[in-house]
Amino acid sequence: MLTKKYIGLFLSGVVALSTTSCKDSHNDTGTEFAPNMYHSVAYEPMTQTDGELNTINPYGMNMRVPAKGTVARRSFAKVQGDSVNAKLLQMDLISRNISKDDMAASEAQLSNPFAATEANIESGKVMYERYCQHCHGEAGKGDGLVGKKYAGVPVYSSDALKDINDGHIYHTITHGKGRMWAHASQISPADRWKIVLYVHELQKQ
Ligand code: HEC
Fold first, then answer.
1. Between the CA of residue 118 and those of 18, 57, 62, 130, 166, what are the distances in Å?
2. pLDDT higher than threshold 80 for residue 148
3. Residue 99 CB coordination number (10 Å)
4. What is the pLDDT of residue 59?
5. 39 backbone dihedrals φ, ψ, rounded to 5°
């Protein structure tokens, strides 16, 4: 008799739970069983569960607010005016809004923030030796050790490439082109522009 009563209670509990707790909608994710399994105990920057507001940071956020006096990247270029750093940021912002399929936009809108001084060309050369030479070769003839195996690496001084401009080369390094892979993740924008200066030197050879 007692067991029956408990089974009855248990069953009505199951029915109640299944009708109330398991509906999920955008605003109500339902009742969670063992939430410590899927809510990280660590302070994750991007996740925050209701009722566990961070008691240390302002607004209950896990992320910190930027330090006082921080200037938004977007307005930094304006703040700095005409300096090389400002131009570098402006070009970076323009370039980020150009899709990888839009070579023409890069050719038209981008220009090199760095002047072709001896020092800048020299740093470009160092980066070229590190990131490009194994395919494109010491003199940009497409005959690097990897280039020989990789095949199809073009000659910079060829008719097709001798006149390509800074934006074109920057776009190629950033997004890759055809069989060449993108290098944006491993070369900073400043170094990419300096490599562009050095590629121009090789175009003349
Ligand atoms: C793994 C080999 C490899 C590496 C590394 C490499 N490239 Fe290339 N690159 C290629 C190949 C292959 C092509 C031909 C792409 C195509 O049209 O299919 C190419 C094409 C180019 C072109 C011509 C783009 C055009 O409009 O046809 C430029 C400029 C260029 N690379 C510059 C660079 C620079 C600068 C670096 C170093 C940051 C670099 N490449 C690193 C293989 C490489």
1. 74, 49, 47, 19, 17
2. yes
3. 9
4. 83
5. -100, 120
State the average pLDDT over residues 23-40.
74
Nearest to 136 by CA among 122, 155, 117: 155
Are the beta carbons of 192 and 120 closer than 8 angstroms?
no
What does the block give as tokens for 148?
């020989």
86 CA to centre of ligand 1 in angstroms: 28
Q: 80-89, 95-104, 193-202: which has the minimum mean pLDDT? A: 80-89
- Would you mind telling me the total number of residues written for the chain in this entry? 205
From CA 172, how far away is CA 193, in angstroms rounded?
Answer: 11
Is there a contact between 199 and 140 (Cβ–Cβ < 8 Å)? yes
Report how far ligand 1's centroid is from the alpha carbon of 53 (Å). Answer: 50
Q: How far is the CA of 73 from the centre of ligand 1 (A)?
A: 30
Q: Ligand 1: residues within 6 Å at CB?
A: 131-132, 135-136, 146, 150, 152-154, 161, 164, 169, 172-173, 177-180, 183, 195, 199
- Round to whole Å and give the CA distance between 73 and 134: 35
Q: Which two tokens stand for residue 112?
A: 């090199």
Asked whether 113 and 87 are in contact (CB, 8 A), the reply is yes
Ligand 1 centre and the CA of 182: distance in Å?
Answer: 9
Structure tokens belonging to residue 101: 């399929």
- Going by CA atoms, what residue is nearest to atom 6 of ligand 1? 132
